[in-house]
């Protein structure tokens, strides 16, 4: 008998497993259909001995000292500020767009104040900003939208930015100074020993049992547990009752080159030519010294593991139907990107999991106080 069955060993499931085991003394079974822990943040050493991220680059950044301090229990840190270049018109230019981007692209020598006016002259007024296209053209105009955003977004999401919610491009700032960091957060680091090592330490507790290559659908009625935390796709849990929620997937091509370096920064985006969206060179992230270098090419796809919920109004409406079902399902908590159909950064998933633990503490402890003795059935019934 386990107190908890947790489906998914990524950030959401692992944080909750650690909290429930270490803070409540609960017995936890953590399962994942993949052959490893860590979810999409899983990293490994390849055949050349280089540490790579199996599912594309994961860069930790946060403004939350609480989240940073929590993860610091399980890892040391390597300071790292992420910088990205975009290949546009045969030049490698800083992205997010900043003062150097514009001056180099157009052969200008603008100051920050002049660039503010330059943007304003090109911006197209949009009365009601609803789409990703609206966000960009209202800020910097249509020419920069076409060069930096439209092609990349269409490759990444499979639809035109005019059909996507404004949240997609609102994540990328536009700067009038020379700050070329991709993120502006207070805490910007990489786990010193890698993400997988951090997860191993997080889950190293006698009350946590891990089963990999295990599908929830195959064991949900075979294992005895009191409560469930589900971090997989919420539509899958409910048997796709209202239809499938669309996700965008990725295909990764990992290569190793017989040279020390390939590109000047960790990530180069390709918004114009090429069928891939970006190339990552991991030694920039890890600080590893090695005579060879390993890269990952990312090819967006409609097929494969779900990575990104597609932010369109009809998808949000369908999710609300599933969310209503989830709220009526006793003793099941839905946590994480896939279970809440939101595109979260890693720190946001950690924050959501910590908040879920506090809610669980209040609800479960309060229920036990109101109802002495066994308050819950041993196993959950299959989803209707």
Automatic annotation (TrEMBL):
It comes from the Bacteria. Residues 287-308, 364-384 are annotated as: Disordered. One of its GO terms (molecular function) is flavin adenine dinucleotide binding. It holds the Pfam family NAD_binding_8. GO terms for cellular component: cytosol. Its cofactor is FAD. The keyword Chaperone does not apply. Gene3D superfamilies: NAD(P)-binding Rossmann-like Domain. The keyword Protease does not apply. Keywords: FAD, Flavoprotein, Isomerase. Residues 147-343 form the UDP-galactopyranose mutase C-terminal domain. Coiled coil: none annotated. Belongs to the UDP-galactopyranose/dTDP-fucopyranose mutase family. This is UDP-galactopyranose mutase. It comes from Agaricicola taiwanensis.
């Amino acid at each position: 008998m386990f107190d908890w069955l947790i489906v998914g060993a990524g950030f959401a499931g692992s944080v909750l497993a650690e909290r429930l085991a270490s803070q409540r003394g609960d017995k936890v079974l953590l399962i994942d259909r993949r052959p490893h822990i860590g979810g999409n943040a899983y990293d490994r050493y390849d055949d050349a001995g280089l540490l790579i991220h199996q599912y594309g680059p994961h860069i930790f950044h946060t403004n939350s000292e609480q989240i940073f301090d929590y993860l610091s229990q399980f890892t040391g840190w390597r300071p790292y500020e992420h910088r990205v270049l975009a290949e546009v018109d045969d030049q490698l230019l800083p992205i997010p767009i900043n003062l150097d981007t514009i001056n180099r692209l157009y052969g200008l020598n603008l100051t920050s104040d002049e660039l503010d006016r330059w943007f304003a002259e090109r911006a197209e007024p949009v009365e009601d900003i609803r789409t990703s296209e609206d966000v960009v053209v209202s800020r910097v105009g249509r020419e920069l939208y076409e060069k930096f955003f439209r092609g990349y977004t269409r490759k990444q999401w499979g639809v035109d930015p005019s059909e996507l919610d404004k949240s997609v491009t609102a994540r990328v700032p536009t700067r009038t100074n020379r700050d070329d960091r991709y993120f502006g957060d207070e805490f910007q680091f990489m786990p010193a020993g890698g993400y997988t090592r951090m997860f191993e330490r997080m889950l190293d507790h006698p009350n946590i049992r891990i089963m990999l290559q295990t599908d929830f659908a195959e064991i949900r009625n075979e294992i005895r547990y009191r409560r469930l935390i589900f971090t997989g796709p919420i539509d899958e849990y409910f048997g796709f009752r209202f239809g499938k929620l669309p996700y965008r997937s990725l295909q990764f091509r990992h290569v190793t080159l017989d040279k020390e370096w390939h590109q000047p920064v960790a990530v180069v985006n390709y918004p114009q030519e090429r069928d891939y969206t970006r190339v990552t060179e991991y030694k920039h992230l890890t600080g590893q010294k090695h005579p060879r270098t390993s890269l990952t090419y990312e090819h967006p796809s409609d097929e494969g593991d779900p990575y990104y919920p597609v932010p369109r109004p009809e998808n949000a409406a369908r999710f609300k139907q599933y969310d209503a079902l989830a709220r009526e399902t006793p003793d099941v908590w839905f946590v994480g990107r896939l279970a809440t159909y939101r595109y979260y950064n890693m720190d946001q998933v950690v924050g959501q999991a910590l908040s879920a633990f506090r809610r669980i503490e209040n609800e479960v402890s309060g229920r036990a106080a109101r109802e002495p003795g066994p308050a819950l059935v041993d196993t959950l019934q299959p989803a209707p």
